[in-house]
Amino acid sequence: MRRVKIMAWAALFMMVANGGGSVCLASAAQARLEKVEGDVFFRTAVEGGTWTAAAVGDAVPEKAEIRSGSGATAVLIFEDEANATVEIRPETLINLSKVGHQAEGRDTEIDLLIGSVLVKAEKIEGESKFKVRTPNSIVGIRGTEFEVTVE
After folding, report:
1. Domains of the chain, start order
2. What is the mean pLDDT of residues 95-112?
């Protein structure tokens, strides 16, 4: 209950500071680029599809797409997640379809459209979820290391 009140006051403060504009609490949940080598780009729905060169430390929000060129790699870390990292391999395209908090825990889903990712996650507790979707499968993670490839 106390956390809900704090979040409500924080939202009110942000709305007043923003001149009465809307506030999205889910936007705080995101991934961050920890490593970038070669031609790696991302775009968000907010930017209207403009690809931007990725750099170490960039925050990557929900619904963003990340693509890596030939010989390029990147590593994403998920804030507040159980030490989860996703290594994006060369010539890969992913979409961060869900990166957010639910009442029961975190809910993270990555769509792997083409290419390959290496996922490392420590044991995920409670109702939190971490999934990698491909055109033909969904892999739910509770704590492991594995690679998924789409050709």
Report:
1. 29-150 (2.60.120)
2. 80
